[in-house]
Amino acid sequence: MCTPRGQHPGPVCRCDCGCGLSFRKFFSTKEELDSLENYRDQLKKELAGVEEHLGKLKGQ
């Protein structure tokens, strides 16, 4: 299963889902760094959402 558009851990989709991400195989260090930082930020947001949801469920 693929992640939503723009949330792949790298600059290219590796799951062959056909989402239209880059055909490129080689990326500059800056591109990889930017991609990983974006991935990290998305993970932090996901964790915050999970924590919030857990809090709501425990509060019921």
Topology (elements, then pairings):
Layout: H1 29-58
Determine the N-to-C terminus distance.
32 Å
Largest sheet: none
| Helix percent band | 40-55%
User: How does the helix and strand content classify structurally?
Assistant: mainly alpha
Shape: elongated
Radius of gyration, rounded? Answer: 15 Å
* Sequence of secondary-structure elements: H
- Let me know the average pLDDT: 79
The multimeric state of the shown protein is single chain
Uncertain spans:
none
Query: What is the count of structural domains?
Result: 1
Strand content range:
under 5%
Number of helices: 1
Got a strand count?
0
Keywords:
60 residues, mainly alpha, elongated
Q: Could you please describe the fold and organization of this structure?
A:
It is a single chain. The protein has 60 residues and is mostly helical. The chain has one domain (1-60). The protein has one helix at 29-58. The longest helix has 30 residues, at 29-58. The radius of gyration is 15 Å and the shape is elongated. It starts with 28 loop residues before the first helix and ends with a helix.
